[in-house]
Design a protein that fits this description.
It is built from 11 helices and 17 strands. The chain is α/β, with parallel strands linked by helices and 390 residues long. Strands 7-6-2-15-16-17 form a 6-stranded parallel β-sheet, with helices on both faces. A hairpin with a 2-residue loop joins strand 3 and strand 4. The two termini are 23 Å apart. Bound molecules: SN-glycerol-3-phosphate (G3P) and magnesium ion. This is LAME_0H01904g1_1.
Length: 390
């Protein structure tokens, strides 16, 4: 094990446990930052009575902008530096669909914000509903494009384009128009606008949603309908039209795929945190026998005390490669029982779900999925978990 100087390890250590935070209803509510969030994150950055640094990531079902823009916003709100490899948005795992589809219709977000995100992910041909409405305004008879919308819409002949997949990246700003276009493509011959398949089963256009939140927390008193509600609506229309069940692939919480993705992100982030920590320390060569001399009463990196709060120690080879055990516990703090608590409870028993009262969950109701702990807000959740560990 690598040994490093006692004064440094006493000053700041890295926890073996970790945190993952939901964003809407935990860190923010619409444009407002939840006041306790700043202090909660400060504590995890080492400002706590144990001088321990706790790795953390964010897992939001939200999206509609790049991961980079999301980090910038979070960093500003929280007064910390959040980097891209700490953030998973609902549509982040959709990057993996790039090799599968050539022509995609991306739905949701402000103007063409989601087109840009999809292009950054590497999709070749990215179309948005505004392009379709510009191509033929009669597609949505009761909606006229504004000048601003016209300026971002592209000139495309959709009678000559075969849409391979529809990716709903973020909440729709225009349910009526988006539903009209999505259903037309799902009922079309090979994804071509203006055509109708003989039999709906001949249509192979993929339909993907970044998440399925029925409601979500904003700065309004009551929760607002989200992408899950749009899904219910589209499925009902499709069923009414065809008598068939709509086939949808879902991302986001509580889906297993997102969990696997989150575990990967968390492992990488913990590794980054740890190696950065080590670089900042004054290392002694592994195997030097005097390393115990300056340890005297410091048994923080010894293994005879197997408590959960034992900080991480490192295995070192000549190039400082790190052998990282999985986080002893991952505390997941969320506000929506159906997505967050279900997510944290379903996939791995080392995840510990904490439900807060600052978002969708209302204190007077029994949550549909039972959290391991309920806290007033994110700060109380962080304090609870740190105390539980030490
Ligand atoms: O559209 C955002 C949303 O439905 C929820 O976001 O951060 O609570 O997972 P979040
Ligand atoms: Mg939330």
């Amino acid at each position: 094990a690598v040994r490093y100087r006692k004064q440094t390890i006493d000053h700041e250590r890295i926890a073996s446990y970790a945190f993952a935070f939901d964003i809407d209803g935990v860190i923010v509510r619409g444009p407002e930052t939840i006041p306790e969030a700043r202090e909660a994150l400060r504590m995890l950055n080492g400002h706590n009575k144990y001088n321990i640094k706790v790795p953390y990531i964010f897992i939001t079902n939200g999206g509609g902008r790049s991961e980079k823009a999301r980090c910038k916003d979070l960093s500003k709100r929280l007064g910390i530096t959040v980097t891209e490899d700490q953030v998973i948005q609902g549509h982040t795992p959709m990057k993996d669909l790039v090799p599968a589809y050539k022509n995609v219709l991306v739905v949701g977000g402000v103007l063409d914000s989601c087109r840009k995100v999809a292009q950054d992910y590497g999709f070749d041909n990215v179309y948005i509903p505004l392009d379709v409405m510009k191509w033929n305004p009669s597609v949505t008879p009761y909606y006229q494009l504004s000048e601003e919308e016209k300026s971002v819409a592209r000139d495309v002949d959709f009678s000559k384009i075969s849409i391979d997949a529809i990716l709903v990246f973020a909440d729709s700003r225009n349910w009526a128009a988006d539903q009209q276009i999505i259903l037309e493509i799902l009922l079309s011959k090979n994804g071509v606008m203006g055509t109708v398949a003989q039999d709906p089963s001949e249509n192979h256009v993929g339909l993907y949603f970044a998440h399925s939140d029925f409601v979500w927390a904003t700065d309004y008193g009551l929760s607002r309908y989200g992408m899950g509600a749009l899904q219910v609506s589209i499925a009902a229309l499709y069923q009414e039209h065809t008598g068939r069940e709509l086939q949808v692939t879902r991302f986001g919480k509580p889906q297993r795929g997102t969990f696997r993705f989150a575990e990967k992100v968390l492992t990488n982030w913990r590794r980054n945190t740890l190696s950065e920590h080590v670089e900042n320390l004054s290392l002694e060569d592994a195997g030097l026998s005097d390393s115990d001399d300056d340890d005297d009463d410091d048994d923080d990196d010894d293994s005879n005390n197997a408590s959960e709060s034992e900080p991480l120690t490192l295995q070192k080879d000549s190039k400082l490669s790190l052998e990282l055990p999985p986080a002893s516990t991952v505390y997941f703090v969320g506000d929506t029982p159906e997505s967050d608590i279900r997510f944290a409870n379903s996939h791995d028993s080392s995840w510990f779900s904490i439900l807060v009262k600052t978002g969708v969950f209302q204190d007077n109701k029994i949550p549909k999925y039972t959290p391991k702990q309920i806290c007033d807000d994110v700060l109380e959740a962080v304090k609870f978990a740190i105390e539980r560990e030490h």
